[in-house]
Amino acid sequence: MSTYKAPVNDLRFALHDVLKAESLFAAMGLEDASTDVIDAVLEEAARFSASVLAPLNAIGDQTGCTLDKATGEVTTAPGFKEAYAQFIEGGWTGLTASPEFGGQGMPGTLGMALSEMVSSANLAWSLFPMLSHGAVEALKHYGEDWQKEAFLKPLVAGHWTGTMCLTEPHAGTDLGLIKTRAEPNADGSYAITGTKIFITAGEHDLSENIVHLVLAKLPDAPPGPKGISLFVTPKFKVDRNGAMGERNTLRCGSLEHKMGIHGSSTCVMNFDGAQGYLVGAPHKGLMAMFVMMNSARLGVGVQGLAQSERAYQGALAYARERLQSRAPKGAQLADKPADPIIAQPDVRRMLLTTKALTEGGRLLAAHAYTQLDTAQHAADPQARADAETLVSFLTPIVKACLTEWSIEATYNGQQVFGGHGYIAEHGMEQFARDARITTLYEGTTGIQALDLIGRKTAASQGAGLKLFAAEIEQFIADNANNPAVAEFLPVLGAKTREWGKLTVNVLQRAASNPEELGAASWDYLFYSGYVALAYWWARAAAAAQASSQPEAFKQAKLETARFYYARVLPRTLTHAASMESGADPLMAMDSLRFGD
After folding, report:
1. Which residues of the chain are modeled with pLDDT < 50?
2. Contacts of 297 (CB under 8 A, 6+ apart)
């Protein structure tokens, strides 16, 4: 079974050397997030992830969760409950939450680092506390004062956990079709009735209570998404003073049988007149839920990154140890019958591709989280507004690209292992299965692509892209005389300008043909992701040369940046050509002829 060692040094490099996070945080009034504090958090999170969570990863996969059909109670895999107790004892559930509700007030960017390590160590376990953060944010922004007082402190402390109840058997992305209803009660609460599916951590034995945020429709709701309201509906009833009472009339009807994340309880939840309270204004539930959804989308992107890191670590260790055939230039280990397979060019291609996408993806994700922090804490209103626009633009890129790249990373890991990659004892096949879900939940890759090109680009006249492109152009100008990045800047500048031209071309075609946006969306998403990583690899090369890191570390960053520009960035050529081909090749065939 593979072992996990948290990439603390690379996380330090990302935060300290590339992003200059301490300066950013200080400018936002987050002075407590000093270099020493950041490093202490990284070290302790690394210890907890590697020593407590990673050993449970295979156990959770093999054992899964168990549903008692008579009671609707779910028991998690051996060790999961004890690990969660340690997690809340260490204060991890409140790391980034407001001190007003018992949190530590650390930046979300530092929370992202914690999330990566926890998800790398044990993705299934990480899902139990994950949605609590989104629940806290939704209630903080839209909840009534008594709801904040009653629900936020136990959620932040980790004694309660949160869920997000959107999807129904007949209604996935099109939430306007939901049938769950909310009938008003005499005491001001509501009776929630309906069935929700795919509910992550909908039922489990880790916390005292589970707080479900449920989308439902009031009796006077207008049709479609404009008629959706949001309700906080706990497993055990909670009164307006925060006291927990009797069991609510909701339960887990069944556990989904999944190809991966077996240790996570993915539930069908049945609400049978369960007591809930309206969150926010009637018929405005999507506004509140989007706070939770956007938090989860970035979080799932980090989960993809985490699986890529885990696959890379396993494949690299195996490639160094596995002796098979001779190196192309001749024997490297003359006293051995064969050389390590890492000497083979194609093995290096897979390892370097994974390394480039993972380390570059880490910077991309961290950048998005710094924008979240800026949007929440910056003193300047314009800085907050720009950060909100930029993180909105980056969110579908982070979510979709980092999760899709995790599929490539885990596939490469299996290929490096050869036949052993198919065998459970090495762990690689579990990473491949677990990574698959990250491309699906919180919106499939296609949904993210449509969001990026539609709402985040077309509807805003490219506001987010303009901000990001301006940041790239500023970096190019600032480093015009920097020999450390001279080889990258002309390519980066050309790709950034092409990005803008392709965007204009697609939007112009869409003005006369509404199918053009959907036809271009997938390629536009990945073109955007690869150019974004080109920027971050140029910045990584510059930061590495200016840092106090060892020479071997600096050289590895430079060589990986060169590999990325030479071997990965050219993928944009295909995506550009596909976009420019327009919608006709996709839409010409009559739908009824697909089976011919």
Report:
1. none
2. 395, 396, 398, 399, 442, 443, 448
Reported for 3-6, long-range contacts at CB under 8 A and 24+ positions apart, including other chains, are 3/50, 3/54, 3/313, 4/49, 4/50, 4/54, 4/120, 4/121, 4/310, 4/313, 5/46, 5/50, 5/313, 6/42, 6/45, 6/46, 6/49, 6/50, 6/117, 6/120, 6/121
Is pTM beyond 0.90? Reply is: yes
**The pair of three-digit structure tokens given for residue 192, joined into one six-digit string:** 């929630």
471-480 burial by CB neighbour count: b if 16+ within 10 A, else e?
ebeebbeebe
Using DSSP's 3-state secondary structure scheme, residue 257 falls into coil
Which helix H or strand E contains 543, and what residues bound it?
Answer: helix 515-546
Degrees (nearest 5) of the Cα angle 69, 70, 75? 55
At 223, is the secondary structure helix, strand, or coil?
Answer: coil
Report how far apart the first and last C-alpha atoms of the chain are (Å, whole number): 47
Catalytic residue among 256, 442, 516, 559: 442
- What pLDDT, on a 0 to 100 scale, did the predictor assign at position 224? 86
Establish if 468 belongs to a structural domain. yes
Q: Is the dihedral of CA 479, 485, 490, 495 positive or negative?
A: negative
Taking a C-beta distance cutoff of 8 angstroms, is the pair 65, 79 a contact? no
Which tens digit of pLDDT belongs to each residue from 20-42?
Answer: 999 999 999 999 999 999 999 99
Token readout for 548 is 């106090």
408 φ/ψ angles, rounded to the nearest 5 degrees: -65, -40
Q: Decide if 103 is inside a domain.
A: no
- SS3 category, 540: helix
- The answer to whether 538 touches 488, Cβ cutoff 8 Å, is yes
Report if residue 459 sits inside a domain.
yes
Q: How many domains does the chain have?
A: 1
Per-residue b/e over 129-138, b at no fewer than 16 CB within 10 Å? Answer: bbbbbbbbbb
Provide the CB-side half-sphere exposure for 158 (13 A, CA): 21
| Dihedral sign computed on CA atoms, order 454, 466, 442, 523 | positive
Contacts of 379 (CB under 8 A, 6+ apart): 28, 29
Task: Give the model's pLDDT for residue 2.
Answer: 74
User: Could you please report the per-residue DSSP string of 42-72?
Assistant: HHHHHHHIIIIIGGGHHHHHHH--EEETTTT
Query: Is 442 a known active-site residue?
Result: yes
Query: Within 13 Å of residue 401, how many CA atoms lie on the same side as its CB?
Result: 27
The amino acid sitting at 258 is K
Domain with 564 in it: 452-596
Contact 307, 431 (CB under 8 A): yes
Cβ 255 vs Cβ 267: under 8 Å: yes
3-state secondary structure at position 96: coil
Residue 526 covered by a domain: yes
* Angle of helix 285-321 versus helix 108-121 axis, rounded to 10: 50
